[in-house]
Amino acid sequence: MIFRSYRSVLFLLLFPLLGMLSQPSTSSADNAASGKSPPKTSTKDDVPFDLLPEPFTAQTGRNEAADNRLKLTTLLTKARLQDHRGDLEGALQTYQRASRLSPGSPSILQEIVRLGFMLKRNEIASRYAILLAENQPTMSADALLRIANYCLEDAQATRAAELYQRAVKMLAQEDAHAQELGTQFRLLGLYLSHGEPKKAALHADEVSKMIADPKKFGLEEVIEQFSEGGIRATYDQLGETYLAAGEADKAEKMFAKSEETESRPAMALVHAAEVAAVRKDWKAAEEKLNEYLAANYQDAGKRPYELLLKVTRETVGSPEAALQNVIERLRPLHDQAPEFAPLAYFLSDLYAEQDNWDEVVLTAGPLIEADTNSAALANLCQAYTAQADWAALTTLLATGLDAQYELTRLTTPLAKLIADPEKWAAYQAYLKSLKPESLALNERIGVARLLQESDESELAWDWLQTALPDLDKQEQSRLLMQFGLKAFRSDQEVVAEKALRAAIKLGMPKSQTSLFYFYLATILEMQGKTDEALRTAKRAALLDEESALLRSRIPWILYHAGRTDQAIEEYQTLLNKFASDYDNQQTRQVVREAKRLLSSLASQNGDLDIATEWLEQVLDEYPYDTGAMNDLGYLWVDNGQNLGRGFDMIRQAVADEPGNYAYLDSLGWAYYRLGRYSDAIYQLEKAAEIAGDDDGTVFDHLGDAYIGAGQPQKAIETWKKALESLDKEKEADILKQVQEKLQQQSQR
């Protein structure tokens, strides 16, 4: 899990928001929800008791909307009283609950942001500031830009783009053109990086208009320093944006401006060829590329070679002929400059397509150690495997190791080697003929990692141990950690345990040793050694008593082992110590997960109120936590409560992650609960298709939906699939229910 570091600077960036949020507001949105302010309490009765009217008794029950309005009024009144009395924490939580009853209410969101900053819960305030920005049309451009920047840091690119769009319109109206230019460029890059060149081109239009007449926009001093490399780099980026959007004329214009600014003949030829290719003028593109190649330019890396292949495939009869044509044209250039890696590696790609492994080795082999390239590594791996050159392959394993001692760049070709019984047996025979000490250090590590990939964990461990003495203690600990975690992920718990125990024996500083114990505890629990896992987790926690992460392993082990009462008690202890620590974002994530697991445990125990309360607390702090929205919505819908709000939450979760089968299952079940069986079947069939055989609950729900729609035969077939998927130990209750449904249907 990756945790974002705490950004105290965000408080300073958003501090100007506090000026407009410092006073409690009573907007029309609140007035509409809560009515006029409650009257002051009288010191004595204004009328005699015998003149008081009879208590009002509703003739019909309130519907959900009316009930929500009443709850909202109550919460807002309570929040204002808490705020007035100085109970800022209570007021903050009450406003957070109110915000979910009146989504988007600027006045409520303002109060949350204000209180969040006052309590120095800056991350919470920032999250609600995003919601406020999205729902308050009068927010200043500066505030929008600050919040959009936070969205980008928080990996919320879509939200960021929408806020930047609003800000840039306001900046244009305010004649703040320097800020407008920077924001337009930010949007251009944002859309390009997310594969939306057409949208990027719209912002390229605005940038090009502004830099074409800097005097009009007051940008004379800005233009030369606007992007690294000066104005030429800006024109190049605009041209490439237009190319990506398929707008050849605009691209050509920008590249011409670039050339006027600073002449670079090689790039001018490449740009001209790219523009011609967008126009599908293959002849013109080829002519420009021929000029580039004839001049022996190397300025553009492999771009011109890739374009040459594309153009040739459009103009030559067959793909095979096109490939050979390009090889014949580029090979003489490679012979003249064999050290030029972009051309050598491009040629090795073409040779690999032809299965010409000898040429792959001749072109890429001499360069790979000095200029490591993922595609070239993969090509060479295939070549050495095809040639049965096991010594060269072993050396390549060393070259292919990354900083984490992983062989990630060789995953695909090595998987093919392992899957080929004949080749794999031959390589294993080669390894048996060796003495490990005859190999270089990284070769031994590479062999160990390859054997680990092949699930030969004990043999991999033997090879790894031969490498450890040649490393200092720090590198030993890193390698053992990486090896152990990889073994754990590959269900090689025995070897994972050996690696972590070896790391502990190194006697590293507490900060590292505590993590070794933390992971070892997890591995022990996955082997069913619960008591030993608990002892190990407690050792980890004792080494750093201020770490919520280390302490969280104790209740997790109990949870995983099914000791639910003890797990609940330990999670409560964890929260009692760490729930009020808002400065450490890793701690906040631990608290978040603890609350979600406590909700799950409460749900298993049939305590709906507690289960929903924990999820409400998660959403208080993380208002757009998709998982919590789905879980809370499902709990409500499944138990016939807050159907409207629950349905909306689930729909939002699906909108955020349309490929998540668990959310689709929740939506289908919500439709089922609402009696909309056709809609339920549609969503549940999508969920089942994505889930495959991984989740029997989806098939159980789908079977119910088929029954509701009057399709009993489909229901029976689906429930049978559910029985095949359900884990007999972990999902015994659901399994029994499905069996009973099948029995009932068979008796009809």
UniProtKB/TrEMBL annotation:
Membrane spanning stretches: none
Signal peptide: 1-28
Origin species: Bremerella cremea
The keyword Signal appears for this protein: yes
TPR repeat ranges, renumbered to this chain: 661-694, 696-729
Keywords on record: Signal, TPR repeat
Protein name per Swiss-Prot or TrEMBL: Tetratricopeptide repeat protein
Region (Disordered): 26-49
Domain of life: Bacteria
Any single Pfam family the record assigns to this protein: TPR_16
